[in-house]
Specification:
Pnp Oxidase, Chain A; 9-stranded antiparallel beta sheet; alpha+beta; 6 helices; 34% strand
Amino acid sequence: MSIIHKDIAAIREDYCKYKLDEKDVLRDPIEQFQRWFDEARRAEVVEPNAMVLATVGEDGFPSSRIVLLKDIKPSGFSFFTNYHSKKGQAIAKETKVSLLFFWSELQRQVRIEGLAEKLLSEDSDEYFASRPRGSQIGAIASPQSQIIAERKVLETRVEEARRKYLDQVIIGRPDFWGGYLVSPLRMEFWQGRSNRLHDRIEYVFQQGNWIIQRLAP
């Protein structure tokens, strides 16, 4: 017999700040995303570029984690990671991924389904060079997603890397680290509305064009 935790079930908020209508959205979903992203920044949403990335593992299970959006391009959305990480290995075998943004201050979320591919080496080099030195050292030292005996192992690797690059002004990007571009095939813009009658506008890429349609909440 299941037990309902009433204190959890009773948590609810009535969404009533904004509305979303088909006639108000832009024809291109990435441009519409840029509009909402800019509004999230103006509203001082905490880390508006934080997004949930979901991949599919070799075992068929989905796996989700929060990563940071680093660029919005006309062709999609980019982020960076260790190619040998769990997500990197998953993308190497299955390029279908999803992204999710949730901006609670605006009562909005954006769902994105698309295909991930590695960015050009020049793009990854440029971003790696822009990172703080400590982040560069951390990316080089960490065997991301691998099992380690204790934190001391990581701290030792970081210290070894720090000493190795002590006399180098510029640290080159390791070949196991870089960026991905997620090119969307489907995007949904969700605006919370009162009584759970939310607005959901979906874009679907079909035969070279974006089809816009409303979904029931």
